[in-house]
Design brief:
Luciferase, domain 3; 24% strand; 25 strands; globular; Rossmann fold; alpha/beta; single chain; binds adenosine monophosphate; GMP Synthetase, Chain A, domain 3; nine-stranded mixed sheet; binds methylmalonyl-coenzyme A
């Protein structure tokens, strides 16, 4: 029989809940501004505290089993962020879904994650609730951009005081779906410990300081806007200028009273197209951070020439949050230099072990190209209900195989040189060729298809579909594109589709996508 020590009996359990850490960083003056929107709405820290308490109390009142998933298919709004924070606060697991996803995509995610609660826009309630109830979801609430919907109506009846749920570092905080190279999407399970450890490292590494103001212009369905942006500002008690959609002119207009901006490369390209982007306009800014896709060296250089600021590029994944970063300042503890170098993603973050490995999972010498593998407190626990897939992606000594190819140079900077996974990153969104090809292949008259990524001046990379028709079939490229638009998230639609008599193949019969990429690489540039 276990004997309970009288000392342990009264020892308080350590609190690892991410929300508790964010809440502890709120400034003393709870009436100061935490969030300001483009339409002039102002939310104080007290508002955030009360609103997250009310939504957390609503979730707690539903008597959901521990570990229940709360899925959100809602447009970006401060209330949508509140839902995320309230889910953490109540100790449940947040499941963000891009609102571009259409019914087949949502059906898969909801069927796979089996959320107890789904929150969606009221205009989508009909089809989303049908999918959700079929999958066993108990509650479907609505939430719209104009602060209406059943979620807020129900939360308004709740107390605005809530004791943050007690969480262990390994308890799940979120599941983020990332598409599979083959087969279906996988839900990356991120714990409170994964997210908080990364947020704390970034707070120091990027020199967050008192008075910082973040321009938040990214969507909150994915890691960049949801975790890197929101945690960064909240853990520093920093105000956010909250933009529901990226618009370069609006971002520029806010730079005079902000200090930090985060964006995918497309956002930088679009800002550079604005004549108003000058040294004067960016005078108050402290830091420009880029990531989610490769930032072209020419964008990096042009930015410095126009603004006098050097973009800090970093690298991350849904499975790991942030992995590497160019330096904000030199850090002697890590023998780092202070130079932010374009076309590199900087150094592994403190606590992250990174190696470039060959097929035997052994680190290669400096300068050699191999697979990037990582280990650290930020690395996820595994894929939701996919133990075999999880096992495949980890090495025997516990490193996660990122699927990115890279090299580490003599100065320690990490360079990403390509991907071993068949993935197109378009404007910061991931497009998995296998998924699009399977939809095209299912269309009448189609024998086979191949989707490849080619350079694009705005989105960095876009998909081009090459399709072979069945003998005698009348297939139109425009019909394929129009059909895909109805079936999949709009950013997945190929930007060009062409019928071809054959596809280049190697001796094994495999389509040689590298040849197709070379053939179509000048299509848009
Ligand atoms: C919109 N369109 C796109 C994309 N976005 N096409 C390809 N790729 C895209 N990313 C198309 C639409 O399908 C539509 O086409 C037309 O452009 C206009 O759509 P709209 O929604 O108005 O576009 P937009 O508002 O101009 O959006 C562009 C955008 C957006 C602002 C660059 O894509 C965006 O916010 N991207 C950021 C994604 C992000 O946050 N990624 C981080 C993932 P049509 O008219 O034909 O229908 S996290 C991550 O990667 C890791 C962890 C990391 O390291 O951060
Ligand atoms: P996601 O699955 O959305 O988390 O996307 C992660 C992938 O985005 C990584 O595996 C990389 O391929 C890519 N990525 C993120 N940041 C960068 C970067 N700075 N440069 C190049 N690729 C990046």
């Amino acid at each position: 029989m276990a004997i309970l020590s009288p000392y342990n009996r009264f020892a308080p359990m350590a609190q690892h809940n991410l929300f508790a850490a964010l809440r502890a960083a709120f400034p003393k003056d709870l009436d100061s501004t935490a969030v300001e929107t483009e339409s002039g709405l102002r939310y104080s820290w007290r508002d955030l505290d009360r609103a997250t308490a009310m939504v957390a109390n609503l979730l707690s009142s539903l008597d959901l089993p521990a570990g229940s998933r709360i899925a959100a298919h809602t447009e970006k709004s401060v209330e949508a962020m509140v839902l995320y924070l309230a889910t953490l606060r109540a100790g449940y697991v947040y499941l963000p879904l891009n609102t571009a996803y259409q019914s087949a995509e949502v059906e898969y995610f909801i069927g796979n994650a089996e959320p107890a609660v789904v929150v969606c826009a009221s205009r989508n309630f009909g089809w989303v609730s049908k999918i959700a109830f079929k999958a066993g979801t108990q509650y479907v609430f609505t939430l719209d951009e104009d602060r209406t919907g059943s979620l807020l109506e129900r939360a308004a009846m709740q107390s605005d005081v809530h004791a943050v749920a007690q969480s262990q570092a390994n308890d799940l905080a979120a599941i983020v779906y990332t598409s599979g190279t083959t087969g279906r999407s996988k839900g990356a399970m991120l714990s409170h410990g994964n997210l908080l450890s990364n947020a704390k490292v970034l707070k120091t590494y990027w020199g967050w300081k008192k008075g910082d103001v973040l321009i938040h212009a990214l969507p909150i369905f994915h890691v960049h806007g949801l975790f890197v942006g929101i945690h960064g500002a909240l853990l520093n008690g920093s105000k956010m200028v909250w933009l529901s959609k990226f618009d370069p002119k609006t971002v520029l207009a806010h730079m005079a009273h902000a200090t930090v901006f985060m964006g995918v490369p497309t956002l930088y390209v679009r800002l550079l197209a604005e004549p108003g982007l000058t040294r004067e306009a960016t005078r108050n800014m402290r830091l420009f951070i880029a990531g989610s896709a490769p930032l072209l060296l020419e964008t990096f250089k042009e930015w410095t020439a126009r603004t006098g600021h050097t973009i800090l590029e970093r690298y991350g994944m849904s499975e790991t949050v942030m992995l590497t970063s160019n330096p904000y300042t030199a850090d002697a503890r890590y023998q780092q230099q202070s130079e932010r170098r374009g076309a590199t993603v900087g150094f592994p973050l403190p606590g992250v072990e990174l190696r470039v490995a060959g097929h035997d999972d052994v680190a290669l010498p400096v300068g050699e190209i191999g697979g990037i593998q990582v280990r650290g407190p930020n690395v996820f626990a595994g894929y939701w209900r996919m133990p075999e897939k999880t096992a495949e992606e980890f090495t025997a000594d516990g490193f996660f195989k990122t699927g990115d190819m890279g090299q580490v140079d003599a100065r320690g900077y990490v360079h990403i040189v390509g991907r071993s996974k068949d993935l197109i990153i378009s404007g910061g969104y991931n497009v998995y060729p296998a998924e699009i090809e399977s939809y095209i292949n299912d269309m009448p008259g189609v024998a086979e298809s191949a989707l490849v990524g080619v350079p694009h001046p705005d989105f960095g990379e876009v998909g081009v579909a090459l399709v072979i028709a069945k003998p005698g079939a009348q297939v139109q490229a425009a019909t394929i594109v129009a059909t895909l638009k109805k079936q999949l998230a709009n950013f997945k639609t190929p930007k060009h589709c062409e019928l071809v008599p054959e596809l280049p193949r190697n001796a094994m019969g495999k389509v040689q996508k590298n040849l197709l990429r070379a053939q179509y690489q000048s299509l848009f540039v």
